[in-house]
Amino acid sequence: MFNDTITLPKPFNVADVRGDFPVLQTYVNGAPLVYFDNGATTQKPWAVLRAMEDYYTGYNSNVHRGVHTLSQQATAAYEAARETIAKYINAASVHEVVYTKGTTDSVNLVASTYGKKYVKEGDVVIISAMEHHSNIVPWQMLCEDKGATLKVIPFDENGELRMDAFKEMLDERVKLVSLTHVSNTMGTINPVKEIIALAHALNIPVMLDGAQAIAHLAVDVQDLDVDFYAFSSHKIYGPTGIGVLYGKEKWLNDIPPYQGGGDMIKTVTFAKTIYNDPPLKFEAGTPAIAESVGLGAALQYLMELDLAGMRAYEHHLNQVALEKLRTIDELRFIGNAKERNGAISFMIGNHHPTDVGELLDQQGIAVRTGHHCTQPLMDIFCIPGTVRASLTFYNTEEEVDKLVAGIKKAVIMLNK
Amino acid sequence: MTINEQQDAIISDFEMFTDWMDKYEYIIQLGKDLPALDEQYKVDDNLIRGCQSKVWLHADYKDGKLFFSADSDALITKGLVSLVIQALDGQPAKDIATAELYFVEKIGLKSHLSPTRSNGLLAMIKQIKMYAVAYQLKSSQN
Ligand SMILES: Cc1ncc(COP(=O)(O)O)c(C=O)c1O
């Protein structure tokens, strides 16, 4: 017998993966939970929970500090998770993966370090009108501080970026473009490759907020040629409290450190401190060790699935959801981009989103209502908020049917 | 009727409902039946901002008693606002200032009073109490 076979993953099957997520077996208000709030946070598979338990029960210890065995095991696990992350996003080097607290922290890191060094009075930072507050406020703070200008790329009625407006904004005063990869409210997938190429033509670096993209798209930072890429572990089936900033090595070497403290230094005297090399230069203090192990386990779990099959299933499920929701009287989508993923936002007649959301909750269906931390976007549409269903690979068509029936029931109650 | 008697009346109304749909349909109906707030009072000064839904509240003071009118952009919140008014309307300011609104929990809508829900109801109750305290102070000065 030849021993040269590689084990291919089993073809993707939603029934198999549902069993991996304990929360999906729970009941809410007497009905089996239908969890359609994956854009806010995703559920965690056993693989993640067990990896974190193993860490705490088997080798809990501080990293990069001890000669003793447990500390070395903990350090090895922390660094192994970094390698898994590098592999998942195809970073050129593991040194390009910085652990942060999450997307918000990653954006603030770049605003504080790159911004401190490169953004000056009269300069421009570009974002878009569909950003999450965490990719607006850090730039506003920076621009206010430096006397720089924040420019905002508008979007059209379908929720697609106005590329003509973007092109017009590009000139030598622009020091950074920071943009969401996928809109958390409308699900729009932005043409980031084109945007990066256009910005690079003028030597302008680009940061992407990958919070909503990371779980659903194959993110290849080298192929994108992106300068900084931020995401949160908790939106890709990992634990809360940890996230990632990918940065091209040349940038991470070039920009100043973020916070001062332990781990980020090589030598300290009262006269001068020599900083550590990236990524540790940006990781001051004891990091989220168990969480890093959990995030590594989450990505490992995904890589052991039939990823292509999984993505095809997600795409199909989204199409089915859009088609079925469209049959509801008075439903109008907020965002109709051709390229879309994840979030499906809608209004039903003039009903307030919270009314619809609460009546769905009574039926065990979890959706998000409100402005989704994108208040400027709501102002553009002149609405108080939306109902948002965000689906992922462990959701089913049967659950979509429950959502549609649940909305119809809610509308009957509200219209009575 | 005292505030607590009014609350107890609300609780016994809700005891009739056997499932969530009846209960919510009733609340929605209360929301629809709440007399419209005079447009002159639907101004930012009277606006209580929850994170998600808005509540407008206006108070009148007569013979030591407070009378409320209100509105909300969300129907379920408006129904709950109507219940709060049922419990407190026409009561002496001093009783309102110290009232404990236990009926919300008893009718199974406690989550609406959670600060995480931020639908304006909690903020509305706080505002009502502030009015009551303010009127009390004013009348004790006169
Ligand atoms: C597009 C986008 N950016 C940023 C964030 C912020 O992520 P976190 O709260 O994990 O830092 C979110 C999450 O809600 C998001 O959807």
Automatic annotation (TrEMBL), chain A:
Q: What class of enzyme is it?
A: transferase
Question: Per the entry, which co-factors are needed?
Answer: pyridoxal 5'-phosphate
- A GO BP annotation: cysteine metabolic process
Q: Which Pfam families match?
A: Aminotran_5
Q: Which UniProt keywords apply?
A: Lyase, Pyridoxal phosphate, Transferase
Q: Which domain of life is it from?
A: Bacteria
Substrates-to-products reaction catalysed: (sulfur carrier)-H + L-cysteine = (sulfur carrier)-SH + L-alanine
Entry-linked NCBIfam families: sufS
Q: Which family does it belong to?
A: Belongs to the class-V pyridoxal-phosphate-dependent aminotransferase family. Csd subfamily.
Name of the protein this chain belongs to: Cysteine desulfurase
TrEMBL record, chain B:
* Pfam families on file: SufE (PF02657)
Q: Which residues form the Fe-S metabolism associated domain?
A: 12-130
InterPro entries documented for this protein: Fe-S_metab-assoc_dom
The record's similarity note reads:
Belongs to the SufE family.
PANTHER family attached here? SUFE-LIKE PROTEIN 2, CHLOROPLASTIC, SULFUR ACCEPTOR PROTEIN CSDE
Name it.
Cysteine desulfuration protein SufE
Q: Which organism is it from?
A: Chitinophaga skermanii
